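[Meeting: bench + compute handoff]

Bench side (C.D.) handed over the final construct sequence. Compute side (W.E.) agreed to return the predicted structure before the next meeting so the bench team could plan truncations. Sequence as handed over:
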Amino acid sequence: MSAPQLRSLRPVRPAVPEDETALGELDRATWSTLHAVQPRPQPPYGPFFDDRHPPGEFLVAEAVTGAGLVRAAGYLRLGRPTPLACNSHVRQIQGLAVADWARRHGVARALLRASYAEARRQGAGRLTLRVLGHNDAARALYASEGFAVEGVLPGEFLLGGRYVDDVLMGRSLTA
C-alpha cells in the first residue's frame, strides 16, 4: 500500500481519547534514534495515553489526504517540566512526531505554533524543549521558531554506539 499524499492541513486541535490508536501507531512508525532515547517499542504495545501521558497534554495535526480521508499527520506533547509551583510558568515540549508522508508540509511548524497559544492559555510565559544534538533538522526548525540553545549536556546518551549531546532550548512566550 502506498503512502497517502497530503492535500491540506486542518487546524491543530487538542487530542481526545479516541486518538489513542492513531497516535500510538504514528508514534511507533516515527521511532528513530534521531530523536528517541527509549528503545524501539515492541509488541505487545502499551497504551499511548496513560496517567502520566493524558490526552489533555497532546495537540494533534490532521491532514486531508489525496483520497479525501482525514488522518493524524502529527502530534506534540506539551507538559510541565516539573510539578513545582516555582516553575509553573514554564511548559515543555515533551514529544513531537510527524508522519513520514506528511513531512515538509508545515505540520511540525503548525504544531509548534499551536503549542505557543496553548501554553499561553495555560498561563505559561516560557517554553522549553530538549533535542538530540545530531537532529540537525529539528534544531534548525526550533531555531527558526525563536528557540535558543540554553545548554548542552555533552555525550548524555549512547545511541547506536555513539555518544550524543542533549541540547536544551527555550524561548519566551511573552515577546
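W.E. noted at the follow-up: The two ends are 46 Å apart (CA to CA). C.D. will use this when planning the next construct.
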